[in-house]
Design brief:
The chain has helices spanning 3-18, 221-228, 303-306, 308-311, and strands at 27-29, 32-34, 48-59, 68-82, 85-98, 104-107, 111-121, 126-135, 151-161, 173-184, 188-194, 200-206, 210-219, 240-251, 261-271, 275-284, 294-301, 313-314, 318-319. 33% of the residues are buried. Helix content is 10%, strand content 50%. The strands form 4 sheets. It has a 12-stranded antiparallel beta barrel with strand order 3-4-5-7-8-9-10-13-14-15-16-17. By secondary structure, the protein is mainly beta.
């Protein structure tokens, strides 16, 4: 399916669902609704499902590796263990089509994450959370580059709505961010070979620590309509959030230390009561990252609003109930 056709499909689904959908309140702090962002993780814990998340982009070649068309099909299930503690399980199926070369496909390593919201301030639409993610080495396919070692990433997340500021034009704006340090459990990859004289040679390739950092800037049109000024936006535009996400990675050691790669992702999210739809362009920040623009799209389900008696049960706090009261 082309990017234009997929965007048209998202719009058609949104038009069909918006007429019956009351205002959603999934990631809520004070009056501020934060959607689930596509490129970086959001600061909330919730009972939710992203399925599918689709990434399609042509990667640049490097060294002996040719340019490669990459398509990722991802899913993530998140479950609250308490009102402020959540567990997530994620997986990605990757298809690689090198030009030239034979196509390969397979699953990447499974990812397990914990997140805890440790500070909230509803009047100022602000929250902070901390977490850790575990990329489980050896659970993916080596054909698509999945590592055989684990990577552990301590993380910090934040969200801030600007509804407490006096200027009407800026009050619908919100900012979220995610910071993390990837720490591989294997310091070096070792390669063994025998030279022409029969001597054993050992090459060691450093697995560097990498600082992940990203931000999103959002403009919530539903917030504008409901809490700032009713400008008469019709369905489905009154439930849209234009946004820009910036997802960056900077190695902190090794020969690439200090050289940042990543993408800038302008896009839009439409949200209803039970799910949201999102689509973004994926634009490399520099030539180190690449030169081709890709597309990122997602369907995201609010399980805690779809079936709260089932999905909001927690081991120590019972059934938490829907995010939005009915």
């Amino acid at each position: 399916m082309s990017t234009r056709a997929f965007a048209a499909l998202l719009g058609a689904v949104a038009l069909g669902a918006a007429a019956a959908a009351p205002a959603a309140a999934h990631g809520l702090i004070g009056q501020r609704f934060f959607p689930a962002t596509l490129a970086i993780d959001d600061p909330f814990v919730a009972d939710e499902l992203s399925l599918p998340t689709v990434l399609h982009i042509k990667n640049r070649g490097s060294g002996e590796d040719p340019p490669t068309l990459q398509t990722d099909l991802s899913g993530e299930l998140s479950k609250r263990l308490s009102p402020d503690l959540g567990l997530s399980l994620g997986g990605t199926y990757t298809l690689l089509n090198p030009e030239p070369g034979d196509s390969v496909s397979g699953f990447d390593n499974m990812e397990v994450s914990l997140k805890y919201v440790f500070w909230k301030n509803a009047p100022h639409e602000t929250l902070l959370s901390a977490g850790v993610s575990w990329d489980v080495g050896g659970t993916g396919s080596k054909k698509i580059g999945a590592e055989s070692f684990d990577t552990v990433t301590p993380q910090l997340f934040f969200g801030k709505g600007f509804g407490d500021l006096p200027m009407d034009w800026i009050r619908p704006v919100a900012l979220t961010g995610a910071l993390g340090l990837e720490i591989p459990t294997r310091r070096y990859n070792k390669t063994y070979s025998v030279d022409d004289d029969g001597n054993l040679e050992i090459e060691r390739e450093l697995n560097p620590k990498v600082f992940d950092w990203g931000f999103s800037v959002q403009y919530n049109l539903q917030y504008l309509q409901s809490f700032v000024r009713d400008v008469g936006l019709p369905t489905p535009f009154n439930r849209m959030i234009p946004l820009v996400e910036i997802a960056l990675q900077t190695p902190v050691e090794g020969p690439e230390a200090g050289h940042t790669t990543g993408t800038i992702n302008p896009g839009i999210i439409w949200f209803g009561r039970y799910f949201q739809l999102g689509i973004e362009a994926v634009i490399p920040v520099n030539t180190r990252t690449g030169k081709n623009v890709g597309v990122l799209a997602q369907i995201h389900f609010y399980l805690d609003d779809i079936a709260p008696k089932i999905f909001t049960w927690t081991p120590f706090h019972g059934v938490l109930g829907p995010t939005q009261s009915r």
